[in-house]
Design a protein that fits this description.
The chain is α/β, with parallel strands linked by helices. It folds into two domains: 9-229, Rossmann fold (3-Layer(aba) Sandwich); 234-292, Alpha-Beta Plaits (2-Layer Sandwich), CATH 3.30.70. Helix content is 35%, strand content 26%. It has eleven helices and 14 strands. The strands form three sheets. The protein has a six-stranded mixed sheet with strand order 6-7-8-3-9-10, with helices on both faces. Strands 2-1-4-5 form a four-stranded antiparallel sheet. It has a four-stranded antiparallel sheet with strand order 12-13-11-14. α3 (102-112) packs parallel to α5. The longest helix is centred in the middle third of the chain and has 17 residues, at 174-190. It is globular and about 75 Å long. The two termini are 41 Å apart. The structure holds adenosine-5'-diphosphate (ADP) and magnesium ion (MG). Residues 51-52, 92, 166-167 line the site of magnesium ion.
Length: 319
């Protein structure tokens, strides 16, 4: 029955407008892309970019104003039950029922999908997510990080082929992050599960995701293999410290964090030009170094580009 070419998820011209007293909010504008079966796909974007809205539409919790979303060929609106069964969604917000134990809540969730005799898989989930010794604990007794693990177990209880995680590691400690990534990567590699992940941790996306879509103001501003995205960036970053204000032209290009200034540079010639410009303007600097650009640099480049700030290179990144 399953055609190999059928995408796991297909977003087709999805728009979402929220009516508001000060004029409509265009949360999503004509978003179209496919996620293939077995992909580990990253959806990145700053706060308010529309990531959660897109995932709510995918999960059938919010209705798109225009366009369609298909999960394994099933329309999330007109064929809700079938589409929902293919999906395991971990929401951004921690929502849980405080009256049940961890194991009970997983049994209830199984029942919701009409699954009985799910104990072996529930045990595997509890084990894999480091929840085994909390199985009998009441949900309200758990720390935020532990609740997050239960939410992930709940999303996976019906063995969905498509796993969707909306900022699952926001505000979560390093150890839990690593447990989660090991577990989800395993599902992706061993069971061929498709994973759609939104995250603020760009190094995480860089390490895990084969392809990345970047959203800005409800529009897709980049959609590429992670390696392509990285190679498209200015390859170097000139980094130094200073107590002085930068001249305007450099300031427009720079990323400034306290005393630390970072300037993107395409090649050695551009590094030289930047250094010359710094000397010329009488800037006193310390700890000058050149490092290789990473995904965060690409991201910030793209987000700045979308704001209309001049790019380091002559033509814009999206030309
Ligand atoms: N229920 C809603 N009502 C009105 N505006 C909303 C609602 N949900 C989201 N928005 C707006 O839509 C935009 C996208 O939000 P969201 O999808 O949560 O972004 P992200 O998850 O990328 O931070 C924001 O401007 C947000 O304020
Ligand atoms: Mg969000």
């Amino acid at each position: 029955m399953v055609t190999p070419a059928m995408p796991a998820v297909s977003f087709q011209n999805v728009s979402k407008t929220f009516p508001a007293s000060r004029g409509d909010i265009h949360a999503l504008s004509d978003v179209s892309f496919d996620i293939e079966q077995g992909e580990f796909f990253g959806l990145l974007g700053p706060n308010g970019a529309g990531k959660t809205t897109l995932i709510s539409i995918l999960a059938g919790l919010t209705r798109a104003s225009r366009g369609h979303v298909l999960v394994h060929g099933k329309d999330v609106q007109s064929d809700y039950q079938a589409a929902r069964r293919q999906l395991g969604v971990v929401p951004q917000e921690l929502v849980f029922d405080p009256f049940f134990s961890v194991r009970e809540s997983l049994k209830i969730q199984s029942g919701y999908f009409g699954i009985r005799g799910n104990a072996a898989w529930i045990d595997e989930l509890l084990e894999g997510l480091g929840l085994a010794d909390k199985a009998g604990a009441n949900m309200r007794q758990l720390s935020g990080g532990m609740k997050r693990r239960v939410l992930i177990a709940q999303a996976l209880v019906h063995k969905p082929p498509v796993i969707v995680l909306d900022e699952p590691t926001a505000g979560v400690d390093v150890e839990l992050r690593q447990t989660l990534w090991k577990f989800i990567s395993d599902l992706n590699k061993r069971m061929g599960s498709t994973v759609l992940l939104t995250t603020h941790y760009l190094e995480e996306a860089e390490a895990l995701c084969g392809r990345i879509a970047m959203l800005k103001n409800g529009r897709v501003v980049a959609l590429e293999a992670t390696s392509e995205l990285l190679s498209r960036a200015s390859s170097n970053v000139l980094r130094f410290k200073t107590d002085q204000a930068l001249p305007l032209d450099l300031n427009q290009l720079a990323r400034v964090t306290g005393r630390v200034v970072q300037l993107p540079a395409h090649d050695a010639l551009e590094v030289e030009r930047l250094l010359a410009r710094m000397r010329e303007s009488g800037l006193t600097v310390q700890d000058v170094e050149i490092r290789k650009a990473d995904l965060e640099d690409v991201f910030l480049d793209l987000m700045q580009g979308a704001r209309g700030v001049p790019q380091v290179r002559g033509e814009g990144a999206s030309a």
